[in-house]
Predict the structure.
Amino acid sequence: MVEFKYMLNNYKKVLLSFVAICAFIFPGCVNKDHSKKDASKHLSQLQVVTTTGMLADAVRHLGGEYVHVKSIMGPGIDPHLYKPSPEDIMSLTKADLVVFNGLHLEGKMGEILEKLVDKGTAYNYSQGIKGFSGLLVEDGAVDPHIWMDVQLWSQGLDALSKKLEDLSKVVLADNLEKYKLNLADLHAWCIKEVSKIPQQSRVLITAHDAFSYFGKAYHVEVQGIQGLSTESEAGLNEINALVDLIVKKGVKAVFVESSVPVRNVQALIEGARHRGSTIKVGGELYSDAMGDEGTPEGTFIGMIKHNINTIVGALK
């Protein structure tokens, strides 16, 4: 019995020695699954914070599993008026990359975004669109609502993908190609659907001037009650001028926006009715913010499709 125990102990020692030698010579063989998990976790640790949901959606499509994305402006948030909270500032300063629209869309965040640009952690999406000059307005400002033209928006994806590749050290070409093809299909679909509206009825009146790129891309006359920024207030003269347009062209519908109060649209409807014009709210459009997370409108493609379907349904 003693001899058997002695032999068993020697066998255990030999076995342990063999395992130790294998671990030293072939380290990849030991805890292989665990190493894979660690590598995957490491590659997915790129922390990206965006200002708007449209940018967050683009980063998710391009970065896939290798990025964790947070948008600080959710559904119904007006980026023109948004002031970052202390929690937002903490997220922005800790992020590996901050992606913002630029062109003064994030008007109240200018100072902190400038500091992050100087630090090298913030990226201006609009500056990544080659040859982009933008739509100018009367005061010399450039319209920031570039996502309303799907084709134009898509042209900024190459530079953003390159930025994400440089930081994550992962090739993202397949994701880029797939998403650009999806947006090309979306752009073609938009053109086809808008063509269903008779030419004389293609007049889009919205709460603020967020659809100029949309109008140029899809051949629709666009009028906003407020200006580019919702900081500007619509005066009586602007309301009266739009009432004149409604009466002259027989416009049957105006549109509210998910991120803009409806009071100016209601004033416009009342003004038109006093002039004998029957007009209704054609529906709610997503302009400066997408819909709720988990809904079709909570994605960029779903948001654009909702807008097109709403506009075409009310105006054709």
In short: Confidence is low (pLDDT under 50) at residues 1-43. The radius of gyration is 27 Å.
